[in-house]
């Protein structure tokens, strides 16, 4: 029986979401549902007793990226008809939510507090060692910045405020602007925050001229204020959309992307103020990331530790650039060639491998629905790899395999599904269930799948040497041989795949004929008989009806009838020989006379029947490979039968 695996529920959820008819409203929320499912899986993993194991932690890390990516795709869907500013601002806000690397997790205020704690601890140590009088008071918490801060202190402040703006940390931004900043600098930063916030809610209050004057003021500070270090210039570059000054402090992939979309947002906002928000329009989709900046972002990943980040960054770039090339290169190398890139290094038997491949496959299909990645030759083998993975015993999920196979070109789908069908010996009810599953998917070429499956199962039998050396007097094999049990199972399985589909009725009979020919050629009458027993009479009758009115009955139908008679003749001849051996002796008494009459009543009809069948068979047309095996044997037996008939007549 088929027992589907239920361990990886995300696989089934993905199929259910992707298989939703496009006309349903829920289709607009597919990406959001994917994100929710990934987050639920994370919660489940964190609740298990294996949550601290490295493999589980790696899977959680990948799922976190997956949830983020689906959320971006959902936001893209939501803003499909929005202005370019709104689209750019959406990506900028999205990047702010991604985990930061390579930066302190502490705010400037927290760092200052830690410094004070260290000073207090040093004071107490000195006091205990009598380096200070016992009545000496500990140092008071000093002001975070003096009234006239040094350039170094200003740069520290700019650094912290830049990180707060970059992370969208409103609490720390407000704190810095209220307590740490000069009025002029505070005004410039506050206006950047206000105008972006106002536009997303009630619309901008500034005119184009006012905003340009403000932008010019920020650029002037960048160019002429000698008190500004690189983070000071970067901070005001963020405010004015000055890309060069902002890029100078970018340390991570996320920094580059955030800076690009911040600049895009500022540029599109300027264009909207110059005309009118109502007149602004945009093509459906996302504001594309220029390839130069995509490459610049990828350079930042060259220095990170092994992990899923680099791989999932390639997924994000595929979305933002509307170009799947880099992503598909990595995915193909990882899951088809299995020349693992460090970002998804795991064996193909691990849950992590399947988890990431599941996401990649769902992502490819999702993008195809939007007209992206439709013709890339690397995408289909990736989908095929995931489909095949769901056919392995430990991952057995036939519906998932069939769904993804249905999205493949016909030659590839036939290869994937037939390989799965032929990989196990299925019970008849399982074969019927799998056949019914195939018919649920309109794009599956059911007949070709069944034919290819049958060829795979029977291939080893059909390809072996059909011409063993026999002497003319060698006997034929009429009895069961236990060593043939596995072969019989293969024969039954291979032929029954064809019997499932009525349209393959002729193919079914032709395959059976091919098997019978081989067994007759090998003198194995028993196996030929078993193959004949697999062909229902209804199947023969249906084939005959379909050819009714034809000038000549098709050769494969004629052969089936011919081989039935041949097999029957061989078994009847053995019965005939057995009767010959037990012929009773006529001793002249009544009992012996009675025995002779009974024997003749069996022997004479059988002799006549056999002689007639043998003559008919000798007059039949035989395939060349059977001519040298069957015909000489029949001729020899006919001579014996005729000789016996003459003796009986006498």
TrEMBL record:
Family according to the record: Belongs to the nucleoporin Nup84/Nup107 family.
Lineage summary: Eukaryota, Fungi, Fungi incertae sedis, Mucoromycota, Mucoromycotina
Main location: nucleus
InterPro entries: Nup84/Nup107 (IPR007252)
Function: Functions as a component of the nuclear pore complex (NPC).
Annotated GO CC locations: nuclear membrane; nuclear pore outer ring
Molecular function as annotated in GO: structural constituent of nuclear pore
GO biological process, alphabetically ordered: mRNA export from nucleus; post-transcriptional tethering of RNA polymerase II gene DNA at nuclear periphery; protein import into nucleus
The protein's assembly and partners: Part of the nuclear pore complex (NPC).
Cellular localisation: Nucleus, Nuclear pore complex; Nucleus membrane
Record keywords, A-Z: Membrane, mRNA transport, Nuclear pore complex, Nucleus, Protein transport, Translocation, Transport
Naturally occurring in which organism (per UniProt): Syncephalastrum racemosum (Filamentous fungus)
Domain of life, per lineage: Eukaryota
Designated name of the protein: Nuclear pore complex protein
């Amino acid at each position: 029986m088929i027992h589907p695996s239920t361990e990886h529920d995300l696989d089934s959820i993905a199929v259910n979401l992707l298989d939703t008819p496009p006309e349903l409203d829920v289709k607009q929320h597919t990406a959001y549902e994917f994100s929710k499912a990934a987050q639920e899986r994370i919660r489940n993993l964190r609740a298990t007793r294996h949550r601290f194991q490295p493999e589980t932690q790696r899977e959680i890390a990948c799922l976190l990226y997956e949830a983020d990516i689906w959320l971006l795709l959902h936001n893209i869907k939501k803003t499909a008809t929005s202005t370019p500013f709104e689209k750019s601002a959406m990506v900028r806000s999205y990047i702010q939510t991604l985990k930061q690397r390579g930066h302190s997790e502490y705010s400037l205020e927290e760092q200052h507090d830690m410094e004070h704690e260290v000073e207090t601890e040093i004071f107490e140590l000195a006091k205990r060692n009598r380096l200070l009088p016992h009545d000496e008071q500990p140092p008071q918490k000093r002001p975070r910045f003096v009234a006239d801060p040094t350039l170094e202190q200003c740069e520290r402040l700019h650094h912290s405020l830049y990180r707060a703006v970059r992370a969208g940390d409103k609490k720390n931004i407000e704190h810095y602007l209220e307590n740490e900043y000069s009025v002029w600098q505070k005004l410039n930063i506050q206006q950047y925050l206000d105008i972006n916030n106002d536009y997303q809610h009630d619309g901008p209050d500034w005119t184009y001229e006012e905003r340009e004057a403000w932008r010019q003021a920020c650029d002037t500070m960048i160019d002429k204020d000698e008190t500004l270090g690189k983070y000071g210039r970067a901070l005001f570059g963020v405010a004015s959309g000055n890309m060069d000054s902002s890029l100078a402090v970018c340390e991570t992939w996320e920094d580059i992307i955030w800076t690009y979309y911040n600049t895009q947002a500022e540029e599109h906002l300027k264009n909207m103020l110059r005309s009118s928000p109502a007149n602004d329009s945009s093509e459906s989709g996302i504001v594309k990331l220029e390839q130069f900046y995509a490459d610049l972002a990828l350079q930042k990943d060259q220095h990170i530790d092994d992990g899923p980040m680099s791989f999932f960054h390639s997924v994000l770039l595929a979305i933002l650039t509307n170009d799947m090339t880099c992503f598909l290169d990595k995915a193909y190398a990882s899951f088809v060639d299995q020349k693992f890139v460090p970002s998804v290094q795991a064996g193909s038997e691990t849950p992590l491998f399947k988890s990431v491949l599941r996401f990649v496959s769902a992502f490819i299909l999702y993008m195809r629905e939007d007209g992206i990645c439709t013709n890339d030759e690397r995408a289909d083998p990736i989908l095929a790899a995931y489909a095949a993975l769901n056919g392995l015993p430990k991952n057995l999920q036939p519906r998932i395999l069939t769904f993804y196979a249905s999205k493949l070109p016909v030659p590839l789908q036939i290869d994937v599904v037939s390989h799965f069908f032929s990989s196990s010996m299925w019970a008849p009810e399982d074969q019927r269930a799998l056949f019914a599953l195939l018919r649920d998917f309109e794009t599956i070429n059911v007949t070709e799948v069944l034919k290819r499956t049958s060829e795979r199962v029977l291939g080893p039998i059909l390809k072996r040497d059909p011409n063993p050396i026999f002497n003319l007097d060698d006997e034929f094999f009429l009895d069961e041989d236990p060593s043939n049990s596995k072969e019989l199972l293969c024969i039954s399985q291979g032929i029954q795949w064809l019997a499932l589909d009525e349209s393959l009725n002729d193919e079914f009979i032709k395959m059976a004929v091919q098997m019978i020919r081989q067994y007759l050629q090998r003198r194995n009458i028993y196996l030929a008989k078993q193959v004949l027993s697999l062909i229902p009479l209804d199947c023969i009758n249906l084939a005959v009806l379909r050819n009714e009115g034809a000038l000549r009955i098709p050769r494969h139908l004629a052969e089936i009838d011919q081989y039935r008679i041949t097999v029957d003749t061989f078994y009847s001849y053995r019965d005939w020989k057995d009767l010959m051996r037990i012929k009773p002796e006529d001793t002249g008494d009544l009992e012996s006379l009675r025995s002779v009459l009974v024997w003749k009543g069996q022997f004479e009809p059988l002799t006549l029947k056999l002689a007639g069948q043998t003559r008919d068979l000798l007059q039949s047309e035989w395939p060349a490979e059977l001519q040298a095996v069957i015909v000489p044997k029949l001729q020899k037996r006919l001579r014996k039968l005729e000789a016996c008939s003459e003796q009986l007549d006498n």
